[in-house]
Every structure is written in structure tokens, then in C-alpha cells.
Amino acid sequence: MKNIYVTSGYETRKALDLLAPYLDGMNIDIKSFSDTFYQETCGARLKPVLEAVQYAHNKGIWIEITTLLISGKNDSDEEIRSIANFIAELDSSIPWHLSAFHPMYKMLDVPRTPSQTLRRAYKIGQEAGLKYLYVGNIDDEDYESTYCPQCRNKVIDRHGHVGQFVTNHLNKEGACPYCSYRIEGVWR
Ligand SMILES: [Zn+2]
Q1: Among 40, 48, 54, 154, which residue has the fewest nearby CB atoms (within 10 Å)?
Q2: Given this model, what pLDDT does residue 55 score?
Q3: Domains of the chain, start order
Q4: What is this structure's pTM?
């Protein structure tokens, strides 16, 4: 059985030590690169999240990062670049999911994130050297598929609102069928 955590990244080191043998992957939210945003909007702090990302990655757990982009709150070029650089410095193979916000619950006064914002963040992620970028919560086939970092061919085709239609062109080992580059990830 494969076990995946979708998490805010607020696990202690001790918790990660106990979980690591049973976890195949973690999708960790980096909700902002501002400690003020974390305190005011999330009731949390930024530093423990960044430390948990580093610690889990260093323990060998497969990590993916998600950032929910909210207009006017955490979507400046500077902030997006800070998150991208943090991930790239840790490991440029870590996938980064850029999700669209839509108004609900206690934040009804902020509009839905436009697709241009997600594409802008995608480009900033590319400039930072990240190999795997994905937009989310929006149907955008070109930006939710996986491309080979070496030959740039599309190797996993995704479309539909949450990428529910998937065509995987990789071989069993997770290698690109065009140039044999091994796409980083958990394939078996
Ligand atoms: Zn390739």
C-alpha cells in the first residue's frame, strides 16, 4: 500500500522520524514566503514549515510542494520567486504545484485567481530552474502535463479540471521514451 501525506508541513522532526518508514510521499503546502502572512492568515509560522520540507526531503521522502496563489495576498513576483528559489536550492527535481484560489469559507472577498497569475508563477519557477511545474484547480492542459527536462517532449499528458485524464508515456522505470532521461518520481 502506498501512503501519501497531503499536509501543511507542521510535523515535528520526531513525527517525521516515526512516519518516514511508512510514507511514500508528501505533498506539502508552502502557503506563502511571508511569516506575517502565515501568522495573520494561517495562525502558524513559516520557519517550521520550511524546516519540515528540508528535513523530510533529507530523510529521502518524495516531496512535492503546493502553493495556493491568492490575488494580492501572496502572488507578487518577488514572493513567488522566493518560494521557487527555496525549492530549487533544496532540489530542482521537487515538483511545484501552483493552485488557483477560489472564494470560499472565510475568504469570500477575494476573487478567483486568474490563469495569467498561474502562468506567470510557472514561468518564474522555470527561471529558478525547477524541472516540474504544474498549475492546479484550473483546466490548462499545457500547464498540467509533465515535460522531459532533457528533450522537452510531453511525457505525461494530463487534462481535465484536476488532471483526471492521464496518458503516461514513460516506461516502467519512469524513463522518457524519446531520450531515456529518468523522470524523477515514484513510479512503482
Ligand atoms: Zn526526454
Answers
A1: 40
A2: 97
A3: 4-144 (3.20.20.70), 145-188 (no CATH)
A4: 0.95
